[in-house]
Amino acid sequence: MGSEPGRTAAEVRRALRELRYLLTGLQLGGLADWPGSAERIAHNPAVENPTSGGPISLGASPLEAEDPGVAPAPDGEAILKEDPGELLSEVRTEMGDCRRCRLHSARKQIVFGDGSPRARLVFVGEGPGFEEDQQGRPFVGRAGKLLDKMIRSIGLEREDTYICNVVKCRPPGNRTPAQDEMEVCSAFLFRQLKIIAPRVVCALGSCASQTLLGKQKSISLLRGKRHLWHGVSLVCTYHPAYLLRNPAQKAAVWEDLLEIRSILDANAP
Ligand code: URA
Q: Which CATH number do you get for residue 115?
């Protein structure tokens, strides 16, 4: 019987890596601060007076496909990655002092996105909260601290990833963004994703998942399944803020994180 020493060694390395992630995950999962105590993140629905959003003709429409297996290379539509940082800056410039929807009126600043323009993993949240609006960076509050831990639990640093939101301005009172606000702003999100062309996009929560998939299904139905966004693997999981309020879901999130890790490993550069 012929043996395959190269393959066996690779398998052993992979098994050791998985064991390390498992131990890290168990350790993090067992700690009181991952996914956190049951302390609540304030989420105060507030109703704003709608004003008409200006017309916009930007970006791509959502595209979803179930069960892609390992994602192929980003499709031909993806913008060549010569200088993704510069291309992202161009999109930010085009956004300008955006007043395309009513969210501009209560924001302190636009929270465009943060991280590596060449990231292999991009996280997409819902919209900036109070801290993000103050600092101009996504996920820097309590949910962000948890996201940092989630990222580290699969052997990455925040700086290795790119983090952004469906809407770039803080909805007043941290309310859920309205459909028309998401429609206008997601055009910028799609362009960010096309430029970065990561291996995996992780949608945090139902707002990001539904926006990227163009479906209204609940996050509990969307997570745990394989999806594609324009040829890129899309993993949907619970939002870290939800996880802070519902720590029982940490096992599910851990599974989703392992799925991300295995897609990245299967597509190692
Ligand atoms: N929640 C989000 O969805 N995005 C942030 O940037 C912060 C909290």
A: 3.40.470.10
Residues 90 and 146 in one domain: yes
The total of structural domains in the chain comes to: 2
Q: Does residue 136 lie in a domain region?
A: yes
The overall pTM is greater than 0.70? yes
Centre of ligand 1 from the C-alpha of residue 1, in Å: 55
Is ligand 1 within 6 A of the CB of residue 115? no
Q: How far is the CA of 265 from the centre of ligand 1 (A)?
A: 27
Q: Residue 133: CB within 6 Å of ligand 1?
A: no
Domain housing 23:
1-59
200 and 237: one domain? yes
- 92 and 28 within one domain: no
Domain membership flag for residue 65: no
**Of all helices (H) and strands (E), which one includes residue 123?**
strand 121-125
Residue among 165, 170, 186, 202 to mutate when testing ligand 1 (max atoms within 8 A of CB): 165
Point out the ligand 1 atom lying closest to the alpha carbon of residue 111: 6
- Is the torsion defined by CA of 147, 148, 151, 152 positive or negative? negative
**Among 128, 143, 132, 214, residue whose Cα is nearest residue 177:** 128
pLDDT digits (tens, 9 = 90+) for 229-265: 999 999 999 999 999 999 999 999 999 999 999 999 9
pLDDT digits (tens, 9 = 90+) for 205-238: 999 999 999 999 999 999 999 999 999 999 999 9
C-alpha distance from residue 106 to each of 48, 171, 181, 245, 265 (Å): 10, 8, 14, 26, 42
Residue 64 lies in a domain: no
